[in-house]
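Notes to self after the Tuesday call (sharing in case useful).
The group wants a holo model before anyone commits to mutagenesis around the pocket. I volunteered. Ligand is aspartic acid. Logging inputs and output together so the record is complete.
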Amino acid sequence: MFCWLSRLYRGLSRPTRRTTQLIWGSFSRSLVLSSQRRIPELSSFVARTNTCGELRSSHLGQEVTLCGWIQYRRQNIFLVLRDFHGLVQVIIPQDESAASVKKILCEAPMESVVQVSGTVISRPPGQENPKMPTGEIEIKVKTAKLLNSCKKLPFEIKDFVKKTEALRLRYRYLDLRGVQMQYNLRLRSQMVMKMREYLCNLHGFVDIETPTLFKRTPGGAKEFVIPSREPGKFYSLPQSPQQFKQLLMVGGLDRYFQVARCYRDEGSRPDRQPEFTQIDIEMSFVEQTGIQSLTEGLLQYSWPSDRDPVVVPFPSMTFAEALASYGTDKPDTRFGMKIVDISDMFRNTEVGFLQDALSKPQGTIKAICIPEGEKYLKRKDIESIRKFAADHFNQEVLPIFLKTNNNWNSPVAKFIMEKQGLGLIRLLETQEEDVVLLTAGEHKKACSLLGKLRLECADLLEARGVALRDPALFSFLWVVDFPLFFPKEENPEELETAHHPFTAPHPSDIHHLYTEPQKVRSQHYDLVLNGSEIGGGSIRIHDAELQHYILATVLKEDVKLLSHLLQALDYGAPPHGGIAIGLDRLMCLVTGAPSIRDVIAFPKSFQGHDLMSNAPDSIPPEELKPYHIQVSWPTDSETKKSSLNHPCHPES
Ligand code: ASP
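Result:
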C-alpha cells in the first residue's frame, strides 16, 4: 500500500556494486542513535513539538505540532508528511466544522510546506504498516497552516525516480531532499564530529583556520588565481594548507587540525572536484609511525558503528612492491590476481617479442592469472584487452587459456616448452579454466598495464556474477617508501617531487641526495582504501639548508617564493610531520556512493561548473577594471579545440 517507501540501490564508485536500502525514518534514527550516546533534541527552538519520523505508539494521546513537506495524498483522506527524520500519516478531517483544515490539506500541491497540529492516535486494527517506522500511529489533525505552496517540480522527490545528474545538480536544493543525499550528508557530519572529538578532546589537537587567499606555491597542482586591486598582483587559492600547517608547528602550536577546503585547478576528472575537503593534520616531534597510529585511531574512532569495525594496524606495503604486484601505488587489496614476474622462465624463449623485451635494460616478462577467465571472458573481451594494451601502452598482451590437463591454448603455445608451462602454473598458481595474460617490456610499463588489466578483468568478472570483492569489506593499506622524486614526464632528465617539496628524505638514503637524488626514498606515506588513495602525508624537512638545496638545486624552483618558510625553518623549527585525509573520497567509499559529488552538498559538475548558479560566470569589463585585467577572448578555432578537449559530461 505505501508505495512511497524509497528503495535505493547504490553502487560503490568502482568496481563493486553495493546495495544500500534506505527507508525514510529508519535511517536518520539509526544515524542519530548509532553515533551519539545522548539523543539530540531535534525540536528545540522551532515551531514544532516533534519530528515526523520520531512518532511511535509511545506517543499515543499526545498533542503534537509537526512541520513538513506533503509527500503523498490519497483519496483526500490520508496525507503523508515528510521531514528530514521520516514520514508520518496524517488523517485529513472530513467533518464540516473542519472544512478549512480539509481545504488547506487537500488543495496544497505536493511538496508544499505545512504545519499541522493534532493528536497521535493508533491506526485501526489491520491498517498498521510494519515497513514504516511510524506505521502504528497516525495524526488526527485539528489545525493546519500552509507555510508555503509548491509549484510543479522539475522532478519528484523520490529517490527511485530516475533523473540525470545534470538535472540533479541544477536543482540541487531539491535533490538534497532525497533519502540518499540526506543520509550521505548527515553521516558525513557525524563522522567529522567524531573526528573532531578524537583529535581535540582525546588528543589535544587545536582546530585552526588558515587563509584561503594566499600566494603561488611552487611545484604540485595548478592553482586558481584571484585578481587583486594591485596591478599585476594575484592571490592563489591554496592547494592545501601545507605551508601554514608547518608554520603553525614553528609557532609552537604542536598539534594542529582543520577541516580544510583545498583548491586545485586540475581540469575535468570524474573523481575530482576543483574544491574539496581534507582533514588536515600536523604534529611536532613525531615520526612516521606516530602519524600512522594517529590516523588509524582516528578512522577507527569515527567509523560508523553499523559497519564492520576498522581493524588496526593497517597493513603496509612499499611503493616498489605495490608497483610490482599491483601495477599502481594504490592497490585494491580486496582480491588477488597479482602481477608475477616470469622473466627467468623465459630466458631461452624462441618467441620474438619476449626475446626482444628481455634483451633491453629493465626488460621483463610479467603475467596475471584471471581465475576461471575461460568461463567468464568472451573472445571480444580479450580482443578489447589487447587493443587497450596496444592503444594506451603500445604493448602486446598474450592470452593463454589453460585447458584441461594444463594444455595451453595460445597464439604462442607451440613455443612454450613444457618446463616453462609447468613453471608458469607453479608461479601463477593457475588452475584449469584460468586465463593468463602475459606481457613483456620495461618493468614499470609492463606493471602499469597489467595493473590496469587486473582491475578491468575484475570488473568484467563481477559484471558476469563472480563475487570477487566483498562490498562490505574496507581494505585499508599504507603505501610507504616512495621515491622522493620522479623524473618529469615531459622531460625525464628533470626531477619533480613525488609528494610535495617539503617532504623529508628517508634517513637511510640521504647520502644519495647530493649525487643520485633519483635513488632517494622519502618519508612519505599514502593511505589507500579499496584501491583509492584517501590520504597522504609525510615527515617534513625542518632544516632550512636541506630545504633550500632540494628546492633550488634538485627541483630548480624559485626559492624566493618560499623565503618566508625557509626563514621560519631557521628560527627553531621543531621536527614535524602530518597527513591529510580526503574527506570527500572517504565518504564516497563509506556511503557506497557512485561519485564524490554525492557526498558534497553543492558540488561542481564534471567540468567544474556550478550548474545551479551557473558559476563561473562572466563579469562586465567595468567590474574588471579595478583589477587591471582584461579578457582576451579565444578565437573560434581555440574555442572549438577546447570543447574537443572537454567532451560533454553531465552538463550536456
Ligand atoms: N598537504 C598534503 C596534501 O594535500 C598532505 C600532507 O602532506 O600533509 O596532499
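Two things stood out.
The first strand starts at residue 63 and ends at 74.
The CA atoms of residues 278 and 583 lie 5 Å apart.
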